[in-house]
């Protein structure tokens, strides 16, 4: 017999599949699904077995049933869960026919699904059915988050789960999704707004950078122009000096040319006489030749050697130019003095009003609205309402100080909090430990070296107050604000504490 011939089992399966496939596509599939369902697990048969009473169950289901309290009748006996018939021994036989029918049924369902997948877009899709029981999907399982049919709902897989009808589940999840969509839209709007703000910040940064670049170029252009003009002026002076010396040398050369011509004529006369061979003629003409008795002498004209004054054109050239540069520097360091009318009574000023220190006794000075009465503070005499200004303050080895700028209307009585909201833009040192900018809260500064002299720069129009290490011109901090009234230099020597007795502050005027 040929090995290619189909076996009886294969023939049975093909025959069953051919018979069942047409039925899978019509409404009788639902009834067939119920016939192929195990009455214990309420699912399609898996490894179906038949009992002596001819009832069929899943092999795992009947084994589990007999192992439970309901399936035990007598020791070694078994009962049918469906007809309750008791028979000796827990025996069963595999039901290959039912297994083949279940396999063909599942294959038919698969083929039907493939046909549905190939439908055109215009075809109205049929109501989806349960893949296991071919029942309409009418329930939604909350735990597994899937659609199930009524048979699945009473099966062991979903018996303990929360099941909701399709319409209620749809309403609930539509409402939930709508709420989520609204919340996400708000978050998206916030993100888009943040993106817009970031783009605006990028534009501001680029505009600010372009403005700073233009200002840097303008200021260096002024320096370049000044240096170029200084260079050209010095070159013109050098050229003029060269021409004057060349004219004098040309005059000397003209005198030399006259003298050379005179000597050459005399030389020619002598050569003419020497060429005469007749002695009578030579001796007759010798009388009219003066150089025969005494040779002519070269009368050298006086020459003053040309001399370019190197001191005018070289020397400490760069230093000289730097000294002359101060006329084009802006802002020129301001000559700041202290305003004695604003000084706390515990402060002592020098006669020049350029140095202030703490004193151990209270000066008998008259109080006035301008004077600080609690803080060891005072203002400068010079006020600024426009332009750019720069001044320097020597802090020596003082361990507590505050310097900067303040509005004219600042509070001067009682305890003072020096921050921009109160009209102060300051830099300070706290007990020799921490440098900080007077923001709210204070901005701590990490410096590589202690400060001995502080530079304060004020640009009234642009609302800037910047601080520098005046010895290295290293930038320390910059405040950005809007100014609407007169600003004065501000100084503070700390608190009423004798530890500051010999540590003054002094305004410093750099010599350019």
UniProtKB/TrEMBL annotation:
Matching InterPro entries: B30.2/SPRY (IPR001870), B30.2/SPRY_sf (IPR043136), Butyrophylin_SPRY (IPR003879), ConA-like_dom_sf (IPR013320), PRY (IPR006574), SPRY_dom (IPR003877), TRIM/RBCC (IPR050143), TRIM8/14/16/25/29/45/65_CC (IPR058030)
Pfam families for the chain: PRY (PF13765), SPRY (PF00622), TRIM_CC (PF25600), zf-B_box (PF00643), zf-RING_UBOX (PF13445)
Source domain of life: Eukaryota
Molecular-function GO terms, alphabetical: zinc ion binding
Segments for region (Disordered): 1-26
Gene3D superfamilies from the UniProt entry: 2.60.120.920, Classic Zinc Finger, Zinc/RING finger domain, C3HC4 (zinc finger)
Keywords, in A-Z order: Coiled coil, Metal-binding, Zinc, Zinc-finger
Protein name, per record: Zinc-binding protein A33-like isoform X1
Source organism per UniProt: Carassius auratus
């Amino acid at each position: 017999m040929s090995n290619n011939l189909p076996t009886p089992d294969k023939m049975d399966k093909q025959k069953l599949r051919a018979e069942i496939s047409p039925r899978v596509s019509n409404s009788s599939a639902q009834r067939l699904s119920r016939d192929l369902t195990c009455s214990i697990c309420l699912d399609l048969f898996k490894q179906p077995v038949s009992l002596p009473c001819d009832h069929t169950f899943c092999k795992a289901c009947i084994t589990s049933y007999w192992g439970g309290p309901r399936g035990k009748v007598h020791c070694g006996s078994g009962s049918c869960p469906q007809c309750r018939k008791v028979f000796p021994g827990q025996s069963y036989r595999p039901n290959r026919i039912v297994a083949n029918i279940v396999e063909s049924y599942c294959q038919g369902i698969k083929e039907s699904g493939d046909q549905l997948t190939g439908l055109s877009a215009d075809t109205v899709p049929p109501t989806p059915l349960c893949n296991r029981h071919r029942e309409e999907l009418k329930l939604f399982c909350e735990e597994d988050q899937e659609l199930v049919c009524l048979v699945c709902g009473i099966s062991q897989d979903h018996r303990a789960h929360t099941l909701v009808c399709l319409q209620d589940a749809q309403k609930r999840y539509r409402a939930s999704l709508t709420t989520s969509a609204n919340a996400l839209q708000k978050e998206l709007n916030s993100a888009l707004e943040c993106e817009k703000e970031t783009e605006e910040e990028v534009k501001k940064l680029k505009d600010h950078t372009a403005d700073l670049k233009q200002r840097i170029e303008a200021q260096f252009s002024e320096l370049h122009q000044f240096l170029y003009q200084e260079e050209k002026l010095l070159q013109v002076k050098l050229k003029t000096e060269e021409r004057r010396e060349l004219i004098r040398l040309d005059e000397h050369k003209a005198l030399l040319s006259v003298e050379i011509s005179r000597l050459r004529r005399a030389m020619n006369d002598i050569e003419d006489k020497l060429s005469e061979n007749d002695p009578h003629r030579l001796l007759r003409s010798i009388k009219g030749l003066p150089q025969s008795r005494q040779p002519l002498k070269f009368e050298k004209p006086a020459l003053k050697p040309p001399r370019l004054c190197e001191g005018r054109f070289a020397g400490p050239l760069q230093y000289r130019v730097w000294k002359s540069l101060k006329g084009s520097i802006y802002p020129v360091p301001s000559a700041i003095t202290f305003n004695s009318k604003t000084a706390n009574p515990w402060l002592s000023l020098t006669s020049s009003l350029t140095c202030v220190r703490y004193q151990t006794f209270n000066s008998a000075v008259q109080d006035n609205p301008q004077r600080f009465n609690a803080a060891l503070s005072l203002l400068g005499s010079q006020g600024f309402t426009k332009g750019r200004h720069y001044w320097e303050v020597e802090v020596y080895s003082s361990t507590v100080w505050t310097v900067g700028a303040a509005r004219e209307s600042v509070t001067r009585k009682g305890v003072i909090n020096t921050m921009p909201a109160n009209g102060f833009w300051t830099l300070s040192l706290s007990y020799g430990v921490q440098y900080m900018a007077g923001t709210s809260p204070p901005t701590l500064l990490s410096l590589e070296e202690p400060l001995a002299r502080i530079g304060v720069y004020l640009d009234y129009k642009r609302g800037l107050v910047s601080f520098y290490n005046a010895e290295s011109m290293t930038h320390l901090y910059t405040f950005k604000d809007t100014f609407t009234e007169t600003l004065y230099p501000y100084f503070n020597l700390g608190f009423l504490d004798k530890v500051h007795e010999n540590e003054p502050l002094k305004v410093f005027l750099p010599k350019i």
